[in-house]
User: Which sequence fits this backbone?
């Protein structure tokens, strides 16, 4: 069996329950794909985006929902060896990627005023992807964020942002009218993605950023690492902690909140207290 076939088979056989079923569940639960969509699957070269691309490729072949896919790679200034690894993996997995070059790393590195270069880079990267996807006639971009990213965001917002918010399964773009962002791996756990990668003997990009030393001082990244460790420790006490964090932002009871915000309006429990 060829490597590509082995990888594809593993997604729908060995990892059917933890990966494929959750991938399909997220798409159905959050209505991520509609007939006629043209979706740019954004590939960074890491494990998450590569798995996402393979899942989307398989789905397009066998779903009853007609949609089109572009496999989009933005090179923000990768070192030659990292770019080669990304392209070699794409070829190995049968992904017909379209690559476009930017000087994003260079631009971010020059901006010494940025207190969070990783955050700035992510925002600029997303803008570049939206723009290129729109040029290709796409109405959606798909990113590889997974279940663990979601629950980490919930805790980060509470502990370091003093608010309750989460990473949404889909969003309308604020700056590119008619464009949406979707996260089809929303219900897939990182541990299962890592297991799938190891099972198939695949080597993906880890951190291909050319500003690693500077990024190491990035507060947002260090805080996310702290949250990962915190969740890992809590999991030893309560194995259901991941699920409970996730469910907490599904089961919000507005009647037990001091206040909440919707758009620019802030609402207090006092508004209805005597009513």
Assistant:
């Amino acid at each position: 069996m060829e490597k590509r076939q082995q990888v594809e088979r593993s997604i729908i056989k060995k990892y059917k329950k933890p990966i494929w079923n959750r991938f399909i569940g997220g798409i159905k639960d959050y209505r991520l794909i509609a007939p006629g969509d043209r979706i740019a699957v954004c590939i960074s070269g890491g494990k998450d985006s590569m798995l996402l691309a393979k899942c989307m490729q398989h789905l397009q072949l066998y779903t009853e929902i007609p949609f089109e896919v572009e496999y989009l790679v933005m090179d923000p200034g990768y070192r030659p060896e990292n770019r080669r690894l990304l392209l070699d993996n794409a070829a190995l997995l049968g992904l017909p990627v379209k690559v476009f070059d930017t000087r994003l790393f260079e631009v971010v590195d020059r901006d010494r005023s940025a207190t969070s270069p990783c955050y700035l880079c992510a925002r600029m990267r997303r803008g570049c992807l939206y723009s290129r996807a729109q040029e290709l006639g796409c109405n959606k971009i798909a990113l590889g964020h997974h279940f663990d990213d979601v629950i980490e965001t919930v805790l980060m917002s509470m502990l370091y942002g003093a608010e309750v918010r989460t990473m949404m399964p889909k969003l309308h773009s604020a700056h590119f009218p008619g464009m949406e962002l979707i996260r089809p791996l929303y219900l897939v756990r990182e541990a299962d993605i890592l297991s799938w990668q190891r099972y198939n003997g695949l080597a993906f990009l880890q951190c291909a950023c050319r500003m690693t030393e500077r990024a190491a001082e990035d507060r947002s990244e260090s805080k996310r690492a702290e949250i990962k460790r915190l969740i890992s420790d809590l999991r030893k006490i309560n194995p259901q902690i991941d699920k409970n964090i996730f469910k907490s932002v599904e089961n919000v009871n507005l009647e037990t909140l001091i206040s909440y915000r919707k758009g620019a309006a802030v609402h207090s429990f006092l508004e209805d207290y005597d009513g």
